[in-house]
Amino acid sequence: MKPQRMLHVLAMSIAAVSIAAPKKEPMNVLFLAVDDLKPMLGCYGNERVKSPHIDRLADGGTVFLNNHCQWPVCGPSRASIASGLMPEETGVMGFKAMRGKLTNLVTLPEHFRNQGYETAATGKINDPRCVGTLNPKNPTARTKDGRDIDDPASWSIPYVHASGIYNSPTKRSCESPDLPDDQFSDGAVCNEGLALLEQLAQGDKPFFLGIGFYKPHVPWYAPKKYWDLYERTEFPLEEFQELPKGGSLGAWKKGTEVHGYPDTPNAYPSPETGEMVYPRIPDDKQRELIHSYYACVSFIDAQVGRILAKLDELGLADNTIIVLWGDHGYHLGDHGQWGKHTLMEGATRSPLIIKAPQLGEQVPETRSPSGHIDMYRTLCELTRLEVPKQPKSKKAKDGHTVKGVSLVPVMTGEQKSVRKGILTHKGGYAFRTERYRYIEFVKGGKVLARDLYDYETDPKETVNLADEKKYAAIVKELAQAMRESPEAAGCYELMGK
Fold it and tell me: Where are the annotated segments for Disordered (predicted)?
């Protein structure tokens, strides 16, 4: 933790939080999404990364240190934040159309639009394979035009697709071309975001603006100047590159997202079993991959800086709620994994920073569990909008309750925590509390396997503790707590529905 944030935390613990009187005018919302961003930022305690602009945003907001996605893949994760529903409720458990099962779904920006807000977006807010025109013969199938039109019902100003012109000649996993920012998709997204911000500032309505960045999604391409911020030799490799002792194999993905590029080892079938084997990536190549990821983070940080500067320039900073979040985490070599798709800390934990000027001085950081599923209720409370009902089916216009809880009491210091833990689903169910990760694999109401990891004694997740007698009471407690969590009603297999 940076010294100034440490002092801020100490001051907040001594004195009561000062909450400014709510402003009467409607608050704008600036929603910044970053693809595949793990909480590898200065405001999350990483002293190596160069992320000054995001850190500046964090200095005036609340950093959620224990935030987790509801499905560690782009499409389902983004659908959960857009809908306030769990993946089993929307049917988006992969690259499925978000409105295929629930045609009359009211997305978060659509709700703001319905309440008189101007809404606009560019870049990757929703996953393009999950939005767009539905296939009438197979409504839940992945869509084909989402990259161009996104989700039309969400945006009062038609969605703006932005892309750069850089096309890799090598198709390697990572590159550092010496080109300006706007030659890359995220530089183009930033330019379009700035143009939309100026357009919205000239209007007479409050706005909801979504700007979504594509990096640090693999392949890791960023302008050379961001690579030059780092010395490759300074990057340590992950110490533990094996799977946990006694861990459930279902919690892990077979394979990674970097094997198979021309500059990384190819997977091959095992002569004994026929299953694919993913060789360990050589140490030098691991450092290059880590270096490239850091460079991409700094590239995105620079774009965020441009947007924050424009917000100040337009005089909108005091009347705009800013949310910055990553859609899920990412393994950078821990447990031998390079990607997301697992039920473990590296894949589910992602950054979440919320700055709401109308609250006055906010709690600077919290270890209270939180999730993307909490965003719908949080933004509704911050803007004083009622929370809508979601449809239960194509015919029933309501019936699903928006899941999650508002995080505002944590931001103001009224409550230390608003939940015991947060659920993530992918094959099994992971429940993350302040100290533990508890995982269950359930089928037909029967628990097939359990995992338990204690982050106080085993932060590297090296041993599954679920079968140890001294943890029996903890397992029982967490099994009950996960079923009582605010989003559990939307986890059908877990609840035996």
Answer: 128-148
